[in-house]
């Protein structure tokens, strides 16, 4: 069953064709990785799906509904969670407050003056924090968190609306190798438990080949291959443009 | 007739270009929005006045005098950069802005000391004092000279920036300051040099317009708003943009005089609003880089027991104040209550919303004028109805203007708020049928029951306190949390479903409504209202209050407004109070950027260091 269906997505910046006619799909509970050399169009592709960049052409269907030009706000409400390449959470808040803010937004309460935000659904926020292993940091200011823990807060934020799809732009960038595998195991277990599909970009090939169900290889804005890790590893075209370059 | 208007507009455009080019250069390299740039323009005119009076009878003395004036202003600009601005290069933009406003006050008072209060009329330029007939209209020859001077100076500065080593370094620093530093470019000398050039251009503008417009003490702030508009419309840091925008704005200005004599500035600002909505970075500008080294915004923990105790004591003190039976103290305390609300409303934007508004006085003035006009129309409960409607009307105005402003960010947002405030100010001055113009509106006293100083003091205290508590509640409420989320990480906040722009828009309206209430309370405490309440210095007063109290704490604006009102009261007893206030502003911005509410933390940190 297809959850996300991307059809002929394209984007030009001036004379450069950043993403050219890219089509792929993500099945339910699948983890799909997008890889490719620098400048392959990973981030552009990702930001078009996430609503940060408007595509020139193409459509994105989420569970059969056209979401191509939806704002990030709307995507969140439709059940798509998003994390960013450089973790950015609300530096002036502690972990619980950050998650309470997400719950307030989810429940459509952000215009309210009626009650102190710190009293809103503290328990649910704490559960959310515990689900990503942050139960010991509830009262820690985000500016004092390690980068890896910040990435966990982001993940918890993305989970606040019980999404069916997670978009993760470089979920392990900036983390130590141990932390990376741990992070992806966490994502995997959350995905399996709640039936979430995950679309992620990643530079770390260990992470990609250990955790992705399928891999989409982009090169110069076009789809080079889309297959299981084993097939991708054996694909001579991929080896030529991508793995060859890495070695 | 029309030809004449257009040519006058183009001549004015050249002068505007000289000023805007300097402003844009300085901003491009140092990222400082220099309020004092208008003061350099004014100095150019005054220095040129002195020199041309002495030597300007012949062309041989006149033109060197003009150039010498520009050079002298360049030196003054460089000196100001070395002494006052160097220490704040790493400070947040708001502090830099206030420091440059401190310079405005200092230069204004020094100019008054040297040249006296009279307006000065400049000599005609030798050889260009006549007029030329064109299509049946007499056009001053000097206008043609000015029209030609614009492109010539544009060309010369372009050559300087593109064909000399120094110019290439300047452009490198404009493109990427950190990269330029990494390549070993000595920034200290470069920045001083750019300040010299930029100030000299402003001085040249002042000197060249002397034969047309003379020199007076109002020139500095009169020119700064159009100059900002030109820089913003052209695109921050773009020289060509500044020229094109100067021509567009110069013409808009001229047609404004012809088409809308009641509101000459409106057309100019409309042009700006339209350009910015279509091209948020100006005609030739680049998108602002994400601020690097951005200081994290403040969080606002709920008040602890200690804080609550302190505020209870303050409140009891305020309630007991009339026991002193001193009218002067009551007047001062009423002023403080009004200022505290005004400053708190601005702090709501600066702090939790992260929106630096340069034009908050607009909403104070709209509230004030609305209250004044309403109370004049209604017999009986005029004051009560005025106090109730002023915040609604000011809030509605903020809703309207805010819709445009929140579409922009950073420096462009600040500039648009300033522009809006200048529109409001110009309406207050020019729409004399409604506002009484410079004569203001008089005889606006409270209803009989509130007519004693004591009762009006309690009324002001109660309403200010209620509004301040409401704003405080908003900060701690879901509304404030979502607002702060948008300030801390915009894309992230949007990805959890928060409509950041919408949130900021509502915050803008709320702050406007609160400022409007402050304005209305102000009117009935003074009995009168003048256009000054919408002018730039009033907006800056509010910024100074917030800064003085500290942006990082909800108590900051209250503390700051009390300190500022008392300080202002003391300083205004001196003749040179502007000079003193300017020095105080510069010292506070430089030495205690966390403000009064940051002092306990500063002292703790100092004590810790001593112990170690």
From TrEMBL, chain A:
Keyword DNA repair found = no
Q: Which GO terms describe its molecular function?
A: ATP binding; ATP hydrolysis activity; L-isoleucine transmembrane transporter activity; L-phenylalanine transmembrane transporter activity; L-valine transmembrane transporter activity
What SMART domains does UniProt report for this protein, alphabetically?
AAA (SM00382)
SUPFAM superfamilies in the record, alphabetically?
P-loop containing nucleoside triphosphate hydrolases
Task: Name the Gene3D superfamilies for this protein.
Answer: P-loop containing nucleotide triphosphate hydrolases (3.40.50.300)
Keyword Nucleotide-binding applies:
yes
Task: Describe the location of the ABC transporter domain by residue ranges.
Answer: 4-245
Query: What biological processes does GO assign it?
Result: D-alanine transmembrane transport; L-alanine transport; L-isoleucine import across plasma membrane; L-valine import across plasma membrane
Query: A cellular component term (GO) from this record?
Result: plasma membrane
Pfam families registered for this protein in UniProt = ABC_tran, BCA_ABC_TP_C
Chain segments annotated as transmembrane: none
Its keywords, alphabetically, are:
ATP-binding, Nucleotide-binding, Transport
Write down what this protein is called: ABC transporter ATP-binding protein
Origin species: Hwanghaeella grinnelliae
From TrEMBL, chain B:
Subcellular location, principal: membrane
Extract one GO cellular component term from the record. plasma membrane
Biological process per Gene Ontology, one example term:
amino acid transport
The membrane-topology field of this record reads: Multi-pass membrane protein
One Pfam family in the UniProt entry: BPD_transp_2
User: InterPro entries under this entry?
Assistant: ABC_transp_permease, BCAA_transport_permease, LivM-like
The record lists the membrane-crossing segments as 6-28, 40-60, 66-85, 97-116, 144-161, 189-211, 223-251, 258-278, 328-349, 355-373, 385-404, 410-434, 455-475, 505-524, 544-567, 579-603
Keywords, comma-separated and alphabetical? Amino-acid transport, Cell membrane, Membrane, Transmembrane, Transmembrane helix, Transport
Molecular function (Gene Ontology), one example: branched-chain amino acid transmembrane transporter activity
Where would you find this protein in the cell?
A: Cell membrane
Top-level taxon of origin: Bacteria
The family this protein is said to belong to? Belongs to the binding-protein-dependent transport system permease family. LivHM subfamily.
Protein's name in the database: ABC transporter permease
Say which species the protein is native to: Hwanghaeella grinnelliae
């Amino acid at each position: 069953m297809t959850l996300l269906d991307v059809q002929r997505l394209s984007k030009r910046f001036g004379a450069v064709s950043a993403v050219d006619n890219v089509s792929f799909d993500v099945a339910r509970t699948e983890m799909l990785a997008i890889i490719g050399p620098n400048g392959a169009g990973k981030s552009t592709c990702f930001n078009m799906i996430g609503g940060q960049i408007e595509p020139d052409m193409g459509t994105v269907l989420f569970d059969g509904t056209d979401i191509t030009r939806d704002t990030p706000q709307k995507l969140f409400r439709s059940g798509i969670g998003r994390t960013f390449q450089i973790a950015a959470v609300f530096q002036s808040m502690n972990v619980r407050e950050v998650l309470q803010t997400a719950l307030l937004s989810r429940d459509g309460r952000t215009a309210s003056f009626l009650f102190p935000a710190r009293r809103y659904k503290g328990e649910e926020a704490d559960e959310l924090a515990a689900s990503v292993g942050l139960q010991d940091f509830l009262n820690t200011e985000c500016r004092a968190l390690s980068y890896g823990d910040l990435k966990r807060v982001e993940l918890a934020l993305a989970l606040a609306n019980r999404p069916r799809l997670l978009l993760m732009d470089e979920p392990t960038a900036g983390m130590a190798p141990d932390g990376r595998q741990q992070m992806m195991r966490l994502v995997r277990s959350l995905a399996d438990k709640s039936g979430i599909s995950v679309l992620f970009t990643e530079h770390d090939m260990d992470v990609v080949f250990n955790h992705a169900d399928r891999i989409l290889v982009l090169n110069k804005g076009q789809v080079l291959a889309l297959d299981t890790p084993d097939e991708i590893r054996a694909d001579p075209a991929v080896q030529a443009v991508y793995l060859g370059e890495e070695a | 007739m029309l030809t004449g208007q257009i040519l006058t507009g183009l001549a004015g455009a050249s002068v505007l270009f000289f000023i805007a080019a300097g402003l844009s250069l300085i901003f491009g390299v140092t990222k400082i929005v220099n309020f004092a740039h208008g003061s350099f323009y004014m100095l150019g005119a005054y220095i040129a006045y002195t020199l041309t009076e002495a030597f300007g009878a012949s062309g041989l003395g006149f033109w060197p005098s003009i150039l010498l004036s520009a050079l002298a202003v360049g030196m003054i600009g460089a000196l100001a950069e070395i002494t006052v601005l160097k220490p704040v290069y790493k400070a947040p933009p708001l502090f830099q802005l206030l420091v440059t406003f401190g310079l405005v006050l200092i230069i204004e008072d020094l100019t008054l000391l040297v040249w006296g209060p009279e307006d000065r009329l400049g000599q005609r330029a030798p050889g260009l004092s006549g007029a030329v007939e064109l299509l049946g209209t007499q056009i001053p020859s000097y206008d043609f000279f000015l029209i030609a001077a614009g492109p010539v100076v544009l060309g010369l500065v372009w050559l300087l920036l593109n064909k000399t080593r120094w110019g290439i370094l300047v452009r490198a620093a404009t493109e990427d300051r950190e990269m330029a530093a990494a390549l070993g470019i000595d920034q200290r000398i470069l920045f001083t040099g750019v300040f010299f050039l930029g100030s000299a251009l402003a001085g040249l503008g002042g000197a060249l317009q002397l034969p047309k417009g003379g020199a007076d003490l109002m020139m500095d702030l009169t020119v700064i708003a159009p100059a900002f508009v030109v820089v913003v419309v052209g695109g921050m840091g773009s020289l060509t943009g500044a020229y094109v925008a100067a021509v567009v704005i110069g013409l808009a200005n001229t047609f404004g005089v012809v088409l809308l004599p009641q509101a000459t500035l409106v057309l100019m600002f409309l042009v700006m609003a339209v350009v910015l909505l279509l091209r948020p970075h100006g005609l030739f500008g680049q998108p602002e880089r994400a601020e690097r080294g951005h200081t994290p915004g403040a969080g606002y923990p709920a008040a602890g027991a200690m804080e609550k105790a302190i505020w209870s004591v303050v409140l009891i003190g305020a309630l007991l104040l009339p026991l002193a039976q001193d009218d002067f103290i009551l007047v001062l305390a009423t002023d403080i209550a009004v200022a505290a609300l005004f400053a708190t409303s601005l702090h709501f934007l600066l702090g939790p919303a992260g929106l630096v508004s340069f034009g908050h006085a607009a909403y104070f003035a709209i509230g004030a004028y609305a209250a004044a006009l309403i109370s004049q129309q209604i017999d009986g409960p005029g004051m009560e109805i005025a106090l109730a409607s002023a915040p609604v009307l000011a809030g509605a105005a903020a809703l309207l203007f805010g819709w445009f402003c929140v579409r922009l960010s950073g420096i462009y947002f600040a500039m648009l708020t300033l522009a809006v405030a200048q529109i409001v100010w110009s309406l207050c001055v020019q729409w004399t049928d409604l506002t009484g113009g410079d004569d203001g509106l008089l005889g606006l006293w409270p209803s009989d029951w509130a007519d004693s100083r004591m009762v009006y003091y309690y009324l002001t205290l109660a309403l200010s306190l209620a509004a301040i508590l409401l704003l405080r509640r908003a900060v701690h409420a879901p509304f404030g949390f979502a607002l702060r989320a948008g300030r801390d990480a915009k894309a992230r906040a949007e990805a959890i479903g928060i409509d950041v722009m919408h949130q900021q828009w509502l915050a803008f309206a709320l702050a406007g409504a609160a400022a409007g209430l402050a304005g209305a309370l102000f009117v009935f405490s003074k009995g009168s209202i003048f256009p000054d309440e919408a002018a730039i210095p009033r907006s800056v007063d509010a910024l100074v209050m917030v800064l003085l109290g500290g942006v990082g704490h909800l108590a900051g604006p209250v503390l700051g407004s009390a300190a500022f009102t008392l300080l202002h009261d003391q300083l205004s007893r001196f003749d040179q109070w502007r000079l003193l206030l300017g020095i105080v502003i510069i010292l506070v911005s430089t030495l205690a950027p966390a403000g009064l509410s940051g002092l306990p933390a500063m002292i703790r940190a100092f004590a810790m260091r001593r112990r170690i």
